[in-house]
Specification:
InterPro entries: Peptidyl-Arg-deiminase_porph (IPR007466), TAT_signal (IPR006311). Keywords: Hydrolase, Signal. It comes from Streptomyces yokosukanensis. This protein has 380 residues and is of the alpha/beta class. The chain has a single domain, classed as 5-stranded Propeller (L-arginine/glycine Amidinotransferase, Chain A), CATH 3.75.10.10. Helix content is 26%, strand content 20%. It is globular.
Length: 380
Amino acid sequence: MGKPSGTASSRRGFLAAAGLTAAGAALALTQGSAGAAPSRRTAATASRVPAEDVRHARTWMAWPDSTSIWGRGTLGGVQSDIALIARTIARYEPVVMCANSGSAATARSLCGSAVTVITSIPVDDCWMRDTGPVFRTDGAGGLDAVGLNFNGWGNKQTHAKDARVAERVADYAGMPFAYADFTGEGGAIEQDGSGTLMATRSSLLNRNRNSGLSQQQLEAAMCDAYGASEVIWFDGVKGQDITDDHVDATSRFLAPGGALVQMPLASDNDAFAKDARKQYQALTQATTASGRPMGVQTLQGPDYGRIRSTNPDFLASYANFYVCNDAVVCGQFGDTRADAAAKAALAGLYPGRVVEQLDIDRLGTGGGGIHCVTQQQPLP
């Protein structure tokens, strides 16, 4: 998830207090031997999470229906944005929407017949990037899935259903599943598919997720789960949004040896703007798992004074785009010059793909974007 307009408030405002839960109130998950460093997989032999731009079998999404989380005045607009995203992606690849039985009819009505709505995987909220499994390929036609032990971003939100989503998605897809030896979310980790990860310490090296792990142990567990061998760390921003600064709103991999950072305006000096500049500097000095220098592209963020929303927690992240089969789906926020420049930049970075730019302002008021609510299942 992304950045606010320069206030110290949360990007999602931690949503509604009624949606919060005390630590440990949600379903407990087994995380393996959290105090011990697991053996690191070697990129040459292990299954790995591929880059996002490989061909997909389908996209997984989740249907929000909780007024205690979203509020009665906001929920309908968020549902409309989720439906718009789902219908758009469904023009390029299959979409499976997980919905609770009581709201499935609404989901089907808004999403249309091109989106498959199922009720066998109950959900608390819509953030499938964080709650769903990460899928791995073995290079020989096999797939498996890994769950990241979702705990409501450090027990900040109710998540008893969402804690089971990863396992249930894997079961529905009919593939082997295991839990990773750390706690985190899919939006907290970017992978290039060739052995390199990037993440923020503020989100993952945080006692609300991984209090028993040192950075070395956490890094080894991440590499084991993703089939990687190198982690590029950013400091991030702790405690100012529900995710503790997910990397996928600011920095993304474009390819092995290539990354993109959404940059703030020169006049922006809030914590997230400063963090973005630090991420850019870190990447320009980083190398990949194979030892290649990292090539870094920049994507100019919008002027928060020119976007449609005046909500201080609004996320206006072009970098939170989603790559699906033959398309790139990203947000547009009302700063027409920046919107057009972002669309042109993504078209240049992903030649041969249609760039679909959507008004997702209702979702943005919750601090999330298109990448946050999607999870790709690659072809074997």
